[in-house]
Amino acid sequence: MIRVHLPAQLRTLARVVGEVAVPVADPVTLGRLLDAIEAEYPALIGTIRDRTNGARRPMVRLFADGEDLSDAAATEPLPEAVTTGRRPFLVVAAIAGG
Amino acid sequence: MSSVRVLVGTVKGAFLLTADGRRARWEVEGPLFGGWEVYHVAASPADPDRLYASQSSGWFGQIVQRSNDGGRTWEPVGNDFTYAGEAGFHQWYDGSAKPWTFARVWQLSPADDDPDVVLAGVEDAALFRTGDGGHTWQELSGLRGHGSGSSWQPGAGGLCLHTILRHPTDADELLVAISAAGVFRTTDGGSTWQAANAGLRSGFMPEPEAEVGHCVHKLARHPARPDTVFMQKHWDVMRSDDAGRSWYEVSGDLPSDFGFTIGVHAHDPETVYVVPILSDEHHYPPEGRLRVYRTRTGGHQWEALTDGLPQQHCFVNVLRDAMAIDDLDPCGLYVGTTGGQVYASADEGEHWAPIVRDLPRVLSVEAQTLP
Q1: How far apart are CA B16 and CA B223, in angstroms?
Q2: For residue B351, how far is the Cα from the chain centroid?
Q3: In which order are the strands placed within the sheet that holds B51-57?
Q4: What is the pLDDT of residues B228-269, one digit of tens each?
Q5: Closest Cα partner for B370 from B71, B48, B68, B114?
Q6: Can you spell out the DSSP letters for B95-133?
Q7: Domains in chain A, number
Q8: How far apart, in whole angstroms, are the C-alpha atoms of residue B326 and residue B328?
Q9: CA–CA dist B259, B320 (Å, integer)
Q10: What's the Cα-to-Cα distance from B315 to each of A52, A77, B278, B321, rounded to whole Å?
Q11: What are the CA-CA distances from residue B188 to residues B119, B128, B194 (Å)?
């Protein structure tokens, strides 16, 4: 299971409290993790990645073990700290006022 | 006894305001979807418990929410608004070509006879339809494929299809309005469309009477007289008596013919309401006085309705979707402001009182008359 920290707005939408964990088959890649998040929580489809083209939404950032994976390819392997469950994968809403 | 439910969309969530038929004491519920922009909340005429809400965010995009129990519980449904075929290009503010890109749903229009059928007007301007209660959406691409599409330009709010006006007896006939392209009309259920802007004149355009390019802010009609349509344009209040084929001005003695919203009385097709705004630069009422204006003659002669509305130091705006009229007799009016007030009148606009004063900026107001 991969631990995932979602921003508050998406936790509300997914109706979860706190950190979530989703199953991802090996090899654990960025794309597979995002697929798994959307499969587990269909309400989040389109909120992290654009519904039409699959691109990360411009004001959402993705981090794993201190590494910025916002612009990484879907095939990017996730670091061991995340795949072993030691650290959560972070979905972060950009600070943009509001 | 009948009751009223007022559906309010704001920049930070939705609110449901309910009252019995006297409309004197209101219960306020919300925010629903707190923190998200709610451009529109709409009720199904076929099932009063079926509600739809357009929830969106600059961070997380578009969500469509559906309630089957009058707003007590909600479920997200489909949010895939993929344009049919090649998306193509429209004009940007500077005239350059910009690819058609979905941003949000501005307007939800449930069908009169089926709660699962809904039309959605979106930005960048297009019309979508669901037949399964919002789970899937298909574009009625004939509109965007109108030959003029590449020349459409956004208004200040974006290139948005903000108004869907259904014909009360002919499901195949629709009028839609797009800022800033104008009015388009279909009589075949959305396969083909004709520009419906003859008679409009817009001074900001190099060809002021061009077939398309007009910044139409809102349309309204009475179901008993579907060929008569009223329009609040960027400037000018207009009227058509031939279902949009031609328009003439009825601004008459209004203190300003700029404004955003317009509505028709529930029981009199010649009684119309507008909220004059000083200008496109100012976006607040003339003289700092919030006045709803009413004509009982289908235009030209207008009277100010002020009792209970702020008559000094008032510099809020009333946006295009922020006025609604219920079906009771006498009909009630509801006006939401960018200052977060929702004012109500239970007597056709003669007297007003705020239901709430401190909501976030109000984007839309709908009134649902319940049995």
Answers
A1: 25
A2: 23
A3: B37-43, B51-57, B61-67, B75-76
A4: 999 999 999 999 999 999 999 999 999 999 999 999 999 999
A5: B48
A6: S-EEE----EEEEEEE-SS-TT-EEEEEETTEEEEESST
A7: 1
A8: 6
A9: 8
A10: 40, 55, 10, 18
A11: 15, 15, 11
A31, part of any domain: yes
Whichever domain contains A67, its CATH number is 3.10.20.30
Residue B59 at interface with chain A, using a CB cutoff of 8 Å: yes
3-state SS string for chain A = CEEEECCHHHHHHHCCCCCEEECCCCCCEHHHHHHHHHHHCHHHCCCCECCCCCCECCCEEEEECCEECCCCCCCCECCHHHHCCCCCEEEEECCCCC
CB contact under 8 A, B59 and A43: no
Closest chain A residue to B58, measured at CA: A59
Q: How far apart are CA B66 and CA B48, in angstroms?
A: 12
Which residue, chain included where needed, has tokens 């579907």? B226
CB-closest option in B76, B82, B102 to A13: B76
The interface residues of chain B toward chain A in range 86-105, judged by CB-CB distance below 8 A, are 102
Q: How many CB atoms lie within 10 A of CB A53?
A: 8
Does the complex come out with an ipTM higher than 0.95? no
Minimum Cα–Cα distance from B84: chain A residue: A52
pLDDT the model gives residue B87: 87
**Residue pLDDT, tens place only, B337-361:** 999 999 999 999 999 999 999 999 9
- Both tokens of B155, joined, read 């208004």
Q: For chain A, say whether B62 makes contact (Cβ under 8 Å).
A: yes
Tell me if A98 is assigned to some domain: no
Flag if A93 and B63 touch (Cβ within 8 Å): no
Query: Do the Cβ atoms of B364 and B319 come closer than 8 Å?
Result: yes
Query: What's the gap between Cα B289 and its chain centre?
Result: 23
Whole-angstrom Cα distance, residue B141 to residue B127? Answer: 7
Q: How many other β-carbons are positioned within 10 Å of the β-carbon of residue A9? A: 18
> What is the per-residue burial (b if ≥16 Cβ within 10 Å, else e) of A13-31?
bbeeeeebebebeeebbbe
Distance CA B289, CA B314 (A): 6
Which of A9, A34, A44, A62 is the best residue to mutate to test the B interface, defined by the most B CB atoms within 10 Å of its own CB? Answer: A9
CB contact under 8 A, B60 and A51: no
Angstrom distance (rounded) from CA B129 to CA A18: 36
What pLDDT is recorded for position A73?
96
What is the pairing mode between strands A2-5 and A89-93? parallel
Which is nearest to B69 in space by CA: B88, B91, B44, B86?
A: B44
Domains, chain B, in order of start with CATH, read: 37-214 (2.130.10.10)
